[in-house]
């Protein structure tokens, strides 16, 4: 398992559009991908999971990837989140 802390930079946090972009990117990987916020875990391949986390701008999350392509998933998804998820 690999993990990294990331600060969410989207002005509106992870609302529907950026959450959807994250889910689309996460589903390309075979690894289990989890977002941790305040010691609670949320499934990164589930739009409802991400939206239920209520992740606002400036929130620190931990992205955890576990599986055969975990390193690629962590690197690419971290870059995506840091870039603002297309917004």
Brief overview, please?
The protein is α+β, with helices and mostly antiparallel strands.
Q: Could you explain the architecture of this structure?
A:
This protein has a four-stranded antiparallel β-sheet, with helices on one face. The chain has a single domain, classed as Histidine-containing Protein, Chain: A, CATH 3.30.1340.10. It is α+β, with helices and mostly antiparallel strands. The chain has helices at residues 16-26, 47-53, 70-82, and strands at 2-7, 32-37, 40-43, 60-66. The model has no long low-confidence stretch (mean pLDDT 94).
**Which stretches are poorly predicted, pLDDT < 50 over at least 5 residues?**
none
The ordered H/E elements are EHEEHEH
* CATH architectural group: 2-Layer Sandwich
Q: Helix fraction?
A: 25-40%
Q: State the end-to-end CA separation.
A: 29 Å
Q: Whole-number average pLDDT?
A: 94
SS-based structural class?
Answer: alpha+beta
In the CATH hierarchy, the third-tier topology is known as Histidine-containing Protein, Chain: A
Strands, count: 4
Strand content bin: 25-35%
Number of helices in the DSSP assignment: 3
User: How many structural units, i.e. domains?
Assistant: 1
Widest beta sheet: strand line-up: 1-4-2-3
Question: CATH superfamily name?
Answer: HPr-like
User: What multimeric state do the chains show?
Assistant: single chain
Radius of gyration: 11 Å
Q: What is the CATH class? A: Alpha Beta
Main sheet properties: 4 strands, antiparallel
Shape: globular
